[in-house]
Amino acid sequence: MYKALTALRPKPGSWPKIEPAFLQAMWAFDQNLAKGIANQGDNQNGKGDFFTDVIAVLLENCSGKSLHGRGRVPGLVFPTHSLDASYPETGAVEILIETKAVGAPITDRNRTSQKNPMGRPGAADLDKRVKEAAFKTIDLKAEWARTAGAGGGPTNDLTTWLKRSSPLSFFFMAVRVTDPNDLARTINFANAANQTMDAVGLVAYMPDLAKKAYVPQPVPPHLELDRVLSRVCTALKAAQ
User: Fold this and answer.
1) Largest Cα–Cα distance in the chain?
2) Nearest to 170 by CA among 179, 162, 160
3) pLDDT tens column, 64-86
4) d(CA 130, CA 136)
5) Rama region for 49: left / alpha / beta (φ>0; ψ in -120 to 50; rest)
6) Which residue pairs from 26-29 have beta carbons closer than 8 angstroms and sit at least 24 positions apart in sequence?
7) Domain spans of the chain, in order of start
């Protein structure tokens, strides 16, 4: 799917143009996971990296700017952070992009422990992931303020300060949900993340066993992935 995405002409820069292919790829991967062809390491690492790459390609196509994963970016509390995607490649980070892909079907490995026949709920993995992303944003913005040397560090109104501070921070989530309750919990986590990020984009999808496919689920407009992609694209185009 990624090779096909990079070969498309004209180059796509919006989510609706590639969402069906993305969901088809995720379905095929999860079938391999359920059958044991893919393992838990593939699920924990490969799926997230794939989602990062897809988001990066869309943003690069839209903005004409290159995005880069970066390591050893200093924070205020922790000496280094690793970034999924960011701009520019060197120097102070102006735009930070974090991604997470969570949720999994029943597999031979979790068949006895997983009580939900539809698999592991996506929201079950979000508490830790959202907190990690939120802290990274706070730590990087606090270090930016410190190095600016203008006394612009965190205030007691943390949410307002975060929204006004650099670098711009965006969070994209791809979540396999198992039922309406899991979807509602996922949206709640996305809204919590949205209090610390400049914006959060969410694609939630539920298995339809009859169709043998993933079906995208509705989310609130402010969380719609394509709307947030457009906002990030605008920020990238404006960046020097």
Assistant:
1) 59
2) 162
3) 999 999 999 999 999 999 999 99
4) 10
5) alpha
6) 26/174, 26/176, 26/205, 26/214, 27/207, 27/212, 27/213, 27/214
7) 19-238
Q: What is the pLDDT of residues 146-180, one digit of tens each?
A: 999 898 899 999 999 999 999 999 999 999 999 99
Do 14 and 58 contact (CB within 8 A), yes or no? yes
Residue type, 107: T
Pair 12, 59: CB distance under 8 Å: no
Angle at 169 between CA 168 and CA 170, to 5 degrees: 125
Where do we find the tokens 């292919």?
21
pTM of the entire predicted model: 0.94
Name which of 176, 173, 30 is nearest 103 in CA terms.
176
Structure tokens at 165: 């501070």
Phi/psi of residue 192, nearest 5 degrees: -65, -45
CB distance 162 to 96 below 8 Å: no
Angle at 158 between CA 150 and CA 239, to 5 degrees: 60
Please choose, from the candidates 237, 171, 164, the residue with its C-alpha nearest in 3D space to the C-alpha of residue 199: 171
